Amino acid sequence: MPRPRDPRRTTMKKDKFKELAEKRVNAALEKLRLIGNLSDKKSYEYTSGEVQEIIRCLHEEVNHIKKRFEENPDDKGSFKLSSRVNLG
């Protein structure tokens, strides 16, 4: 029989998540603003390809983070056959 959850522990975990999330997201936002500063053509020279590469990299990382939050923690990469049968 599973042990009942300690509500104090749950509250502590929620508080720690909020504390770290705010700190880390604010730090990430500051770094993103610094990347945005690179757009100043008076100070920097760059190609549209370089800009696209930066944007693509940032998008990929955001998508990776989103996927991690959306994942089912109980799903250990299980295998399921598709309902389609391709015999040809």
Structural overview:
It is a single chain. By secondary structure, the protein is mainly α. It has a domain at 10-68. Helices cover 61% and strands 0% of the residues. It contains two helices and no strands. The protein is flat, with a radius of gyration of 22 Å. The termini are far apart. The model has no long low-confidence stretch (mean pLDDT 89).
Counting helices, strands and paired strands, the structural category is: mainly alpha
Mean pLDDT across all residues, rounded? Answer: 89
Instruction: Tell me the series of helices and strands, N- to C-terminal.
Output: HH
Report the portion of residues in β strands. Answer: under 5%
Biggest sheet layout: none
| Alpha-carbon distance between the two ends | 50 Å
- Say how many strands there are: 0
Radius of gyration of CA atoms, rounded to a whole number: 22 Å
Quaternary structure type: single chain
Tell the overall outline. flat
Write the layout of secondary structure elements.
Elements: H1 7-37, H2 48-70
Descriptive terms for the model:
88 residues, mainly alpha
Short description:
The chain is mainly alpha-helical and 88 residues long.
